[in-house]
């Protein structure tokens, strides 16, 4: 990811093209306009006041669509953004980026790659020019790729040394295997030297098609962004092969802010997923379907200060009507660190705080998580705690902590959910949605991802109304569906640290929670 900020640059040129052909899609909100250009690239704007503008390009791409032979290309496309192009040297690109007076960045995730800029209003033409240049005209110089290899080696090793960042990746790999959603966000170390110009251009040829792109913006006139998009992206030709994203029924659930704030390599509220499945025509890069299998992995590391234990199950995908109940359940479980400067609004009354952290001082961190994707999700709990072998008083083995986590899941299955507790969780979820959208960058990213998914912007009032409809019986029903004894859903268990988990299957059997 690359960011830059500095002084204001004015760019006042306004493009007028009366003959521009476009079709306007009716939007659900009077502040949102969506236009599809002749080459099928979609342009969406939201009319909201502010001192800054933001614009972004959102592409249906990412590590989910990598094959074993192309593993790591998404990570390198991210790192190679805003380098030398056929029209700008690296120095010229860097100077232009720094002149925007805001931020410009690229980020890749499992199901999307985005290029986004936040800047002063008059810098929108320049920002979109830079985005189009790095997307359409990259040089991929050998020396720049080599420099990013060195940086990638450092990044991978740095993240691998931090359990809160690398273990969510391990959980995905154990849950889904080595393809699809199990593919790593970071380029594997043994692949770093294999990612070259050919691999990057092959990926871009496959993924960077206008029908798989959305340009979203806020802080500018819709007509201005349409004209700028036509100016900078009209050279892209749409593919004669329709992607399944154009034939998929639009879901009634927004894919954005339901993702957790749990630690991960990418942990923006809106970055847990984007949500399309292209039908690949490449023999090198494919859209891998993901099959959840569950499983167990122990990573022995006696250098760790704490043991780390993750328990996960396959949840429902973003298209499923139960997504709101599952998101509410995650907030209800809540959790956090053993020390918090916050109050009730920070989750201090959530179950993992009141039932785990407040009773077991040896537990340093305990929280729920929910990673949402198009056709699947990962829902679960994790805990970090003092090892029994540390010699410190109160140390525990994973086999001693696991029953407490599984017990919390069983309470959702077999005990009533108090109305007051559910109401608090729903209010916290609604609050997190609305407060996140106060950020202009999040607002634009949210708009781009929603249009990428289902060709419309879902109003926040529609989301909050659906959250309000969640009842206690819905929580218990969805809990039974995800990890009940009749769900057929196997757990994913990942442990890192000093001691193994032991006979973890017996714990699930004891509490009548879905087991092996």
Automatic annotation (TrEMBL):
Transmembrane segments: none annotated. PROSITE patterns: INSULINASE. Residues 199-429 form the Peptidase M16 C-terminal domain. GO terms for molecular function: metal ion binding; metalloendopeptidase activity. Gene3D superfamilies: Metalloenzyme, LuxS/M16 peptidase-like. Residues 42-189 form the Peptidase M16 N-terminal domain. GO terms for biological process: protein processing involved in protein targeting to mitochondrion. Pfam families: Peptidase_M16 (PF00675), Peptidase_M16_C (PF05193). InterPro entries: Metalloenz_LuxS/M16, MPP/UQCRC_Complex, Pept_M16_N, Pept_M16_Zn_BS, Peptidase_M16_C. It comes from the Eukaryota. GO terms for cellular component: mitochondrion. Belongs to the peptidase M16 family. Substrate recognition and binding subunit of the essential mitochondrial processing protease (MPP), which cleaves the mitochondrial sequence off newly imported precursors proteins. This is Alpha-MPP. It comes from Tricholomella constricta.
């Amino acid at each position: 990811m690359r960011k830059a900020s500095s002084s204001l640059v004015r760019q006042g040129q306004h493009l007028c093209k009366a003959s521009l052909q476009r079709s306007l899609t009716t939007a659900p909100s009077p502040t949102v306009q969506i236009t599809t250009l002749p080459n099928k690239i979609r342009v969406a704007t939201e009319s909201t006041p502010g001192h800054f503008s933001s614009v972004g390009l959102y592409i249906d791409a990412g590590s989910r669509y990598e094959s074993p032979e192309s593993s790591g290309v998404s990570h390198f496309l991210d790192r190679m953004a805003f380098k030398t192009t056929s029209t700008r040297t690296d120095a010229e690109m860097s100077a232009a980026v720094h002149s925007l007076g805001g931020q410009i960045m690229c980020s890749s995730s499992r199901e999307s790659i985005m290029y986004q800029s936040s800047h002063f209003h008059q810098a929108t033409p320049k920002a979109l020019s830079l985005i189009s240049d790095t997307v359409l005209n990259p040089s991929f110089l050998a020396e720049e790729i080599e420099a990013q290899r060195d940086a990638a080696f450092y990044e991978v090793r740095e993240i691998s040394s931090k359990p809160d960042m690398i273990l969510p990746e391990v959980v995905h790999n154990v849950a889904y295997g080595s393809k699809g959603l199990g593919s790593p966000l970071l380029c594997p170390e043994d692949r770093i030297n294999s990612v070259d110009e050919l691999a990057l251009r092959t990926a871009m040829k496959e993924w960077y098609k206008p029908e798989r792109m959305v340009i979203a913006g806020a802080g500018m006139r819709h007509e201005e962004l349409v004209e700028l998009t036509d100016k900078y992206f009209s050279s892209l030709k749409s593919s004669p092969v329709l992607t399944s994203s154009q034939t998929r029924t639009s879901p009634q659930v927004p894919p954005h802010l339901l993702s957790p704030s749990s630690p991960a390599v990418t942990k923006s509220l809106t970055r847990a997923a984007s949500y399309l499945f292209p039908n690949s025509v490449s023999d090198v890069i494919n859209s891998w379907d993901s099959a959840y299998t569950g499983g167990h992995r122990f990573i022995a590391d006696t250098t760790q200060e704490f043991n780390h234990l993750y328990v996960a199950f396959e949840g429902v995908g973003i298209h499923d009507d139960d997504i709101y109940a599952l998101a509410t359940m995650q907030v209800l479980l809540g959790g956090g660190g053993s020390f918090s400067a916050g109050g009730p609004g920070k989750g201090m009354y959530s179950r993992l705080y009141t039932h785990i952290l407040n009773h077991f001082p040896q537990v340093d961190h305990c929280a729920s998580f929910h990673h949402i994707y198009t056709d699947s999700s990962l829902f679960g709990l994790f805990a970090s705690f003092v090892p029994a072998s540390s010699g410190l008083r109160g140390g525990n083995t994973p086999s001693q902590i696991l029953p407490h986590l599984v017990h919390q899941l069983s309470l959702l299955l077999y005990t009533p959910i108090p109305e007051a507790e559910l109401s608090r969780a729903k209010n916290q979820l609604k609050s997190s949605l609305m407060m996140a959208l106060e950020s202009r960058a999040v607002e634009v990213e949210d708009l781009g991802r929603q249009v990428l998914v289902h060709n419309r912007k879902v109003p926040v009032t529609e989301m909050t109304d659906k959250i309000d409809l969640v009842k206690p019986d819905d929580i218990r029903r969805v809990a039974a569906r995800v990890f009940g004894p009749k769900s057929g859903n196997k757990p994913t268990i990942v442990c890192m640290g000093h001691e193994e988990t032991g006979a973890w299957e017996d714990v699930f059997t004891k509490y009548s929670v879905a087991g092996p």
